[in-house]
Amino acid sequence: MKRSIQWIAGIASILFLLASTACAATKTEPNQVSSSPAASNQTTKVVTDKQRVVKSSKGDVKIPDEPKKVIGLSVVYPEFLYALGVTPIAVQNYHPEFPSYLKEPFKYTVKTGLAQTPNFEAILATEPDLIIAPTWWSDKDYEQLSKIAPTVLLPQRDNWRDELKDIGEVLGKKTLAEKVIQDLQNKEVDAKEKLHALVGNETVMYMMIMAKELVVYGENIDRGSFIHKELGLKPVKDFPQSEQSVSISLEKIPDFNPDHIILQLDDESSDEVQKRYKALLESSLWKNMTAVKNNHVYIMGGKEWFSLGMSPLADSNAVDDVLRAFNKNAK
Question: Pick from 83, 113, 203, 240: most CB atoms within 10 A?
Answer without folding.
Answer: 83
